[in-house]
Amino acid sequence: MKDSPMKVLALALGLALWSSALSASEPNFQFSSIRMQGMGGAGAAVANGENALYANPAALAQISDIVVRIAPLRFELNDAILDKQQALTDLSSSFSSEDTEAITNLIKNGLVPTKLGLNFSSIPLLSMAFNGFGMGLFGQTQLVGNFVNKTNPIFQVSGIGDGAGVVGFARNMTLFGVDLSLGVTGKYILRGRTVDKDGSNVISLGIADIISAANGTSPSVNIQAGSGFGFDCAVMGTLEVPFVGKVKTALVLNNVGTSISGSDINGNAFTTTIPMLPTLGLGFDSSLPFIGDFVTAVDYQFDSNSQDMFKNIHAGFEKSVWIFALRGGINQGYLTLGMGTDLFWILHLNYAYTTTAFGKKVGLDESSFHVVELRFLF
After folding, report:
1. Could you confirm whether domain 5-376 is CATH 2.40.160?
2. Contact, 56 vs 354, CB < 8 A?
C-alpha cells in the first residue's frame, strides 16, 4: 500500500520548521492574487495559472494549456480613506495657509487616530505558464500612513515597493511510492522601502514636516533600494476521497535563501535576509446536490513575524455561477468577500474585501481594504 502524501508532506514540513529560526525584522516578500484575497488569503493547494509562480510552484505541473497574462491593474484602499474623506479634504485645503495651529486642530479632532492604506500592483505585469514551466514579471507598492497621538500629533508613514522576475519549473513524479508534483521558482528581486534610524520602515513626521511635505519641501526621509535572488519550493499531492472529492495537499516554502543588498540615499550599504515563509495548504474540489461544483482551501502560514497562531490561518471558498466566481473566507479571523467575472472573454473584473491585522496578533492594528482589479484580453 502506498504511503499517504500527507506523511511525505509532514516530514518535509518538519524539516522546514527546523531550519526556519530566522530574523523577522525585514518584511516578508510575497505576492497574492485577488482570488486569494477574496478567499481569506488561502490558495496554496488550489493555485492555478500564473498564480502558481508565487503561490505554489508545484502547481505549474498541473497546467496543460498555455496561460498568458498581461498587466492587470489592481488598486486597494482601506475603509479609513472613505470614512475620513471629508477630514482629509479639509486638511488638504488647509495646507496652503501654513496655519500650524489650524492644521494641528484638524488633525487632532478629525484624524487621530486614523490608519490610511493604499496599495497598487500589477500581478503579473506579464507572465506565461505551460506544462510545468512558467515565467513572469510582478510588481506591487504598499503605502501606509497612521495619525497618532492627540496631544502632539504625529504622522507615521511607511512605504515599500517590490518587483520580481520569476522563472519556474515543475514535474509530476513518484517519490517513495507517492505520486507528487514538485516545483521550484528562482526570482530576481528589487525592493525599495522607507527606513527610519532604528532600521524599521516606519518614519514619524511632526506637524512641521507634514506642512513642508504638502507644500513641496521633502522632509528628511531615508530610502533603501536593493536587489537580490531567492527561491520558492513546493511539493503537492492529490487524493480522491469518497464523498469529499479531490483533496490536494501542499507544502510551499517561500523565500528560501533570499537576501537583498543595496544602499540608502546616503550611500550606506546594507544586506538583509528575508525570512523564509512555510505554508501548509489543503484544497478540496467538491460537488454537492443543489450546489454543484465548488472549491475550498485552508492554509496555515508559519510566519516568523506573527505571535498568534490564529493570525496564520486562512480559509476560503470559490463557487462559479454563470460568468461569475463568488468567493468568501476568513483571513486571520476576519471575514473576506470576493467576486470575479469575465465579460465576453475581453474584460476581466475582480473585487475583494479583506481585513488584515498588521500587528503581531489578531485584533492588533487591523485594517480593511476594498480591492479592485481590471484586466483586458488575456
Report:
1. yes
2. no
For 150, which DSSP code? S
DSSP codes, 186-218: EEEEEEEEEE-TTS-S-EEE-HHHHHHHHTT--
Other CB atoms closer than 10 Å to residue 352's CB: what's the count? Answer: 29
CA distance linking residue 320 with residue 337, whole number of Å: 14
Q: Which residues contact 254 (CB under 8 A, 6 or more apart)?
A: 28, 29, 30, 54, 232, 276, 277, 278, 279
Grid coordinates given for 67:
496561460
Neighbours of 276 (CB within 10 A): 24
By the 8 A CB rule, do 30 and 44 touch?
Answer: no
Query: Do the Cβ atoms of 354 and 336 come closer than 8 Å?
Result: yes
Q: What are phi and psi of 355, to 5 degrees?
A: -120, 140
CA distance 225 to 192: 4
Identity at 47, one-letter amino acid code: A
255: alpha, beta or left? (left if phi > 0; alpha if psi -120 to 50): left
3-state helix, strand, coil in the chain (%, to 5): 20, 55, 25
Phi then psi for 279, rounded to 5 degrees? -130, 130
Span 187-219, pLDDT tens digits? 999 999 998 877 778 888 888 888 777 776 666
- Cell numbers at 241, concatenated: 476521497
Tens digits of per-residue pLDDT, 104-122?
999 999 999 999 999 999 9
Alpha-carbon distance values, 354 to 42, 185, 192, 331 (Å): 12, 28, 25, 7
Calpha distance 202→222 (Å, rounded): 10
DSSP lists the bridge partners of residue 130 as 133
The per-residue DSSP string of 305-326 comes to T-S-GGGGEEEEEEEEETTEEE
Residue 142: strand, helix, or coil:
strand
CA distances from 359 to 20, 28, 202, 305, 306 (A): 21, 14, 13, 9, 8
pLDDT in tens, 126-175: 999 999 999 999 999 999 999 999 889 999 989 999 999 999 999 999 87
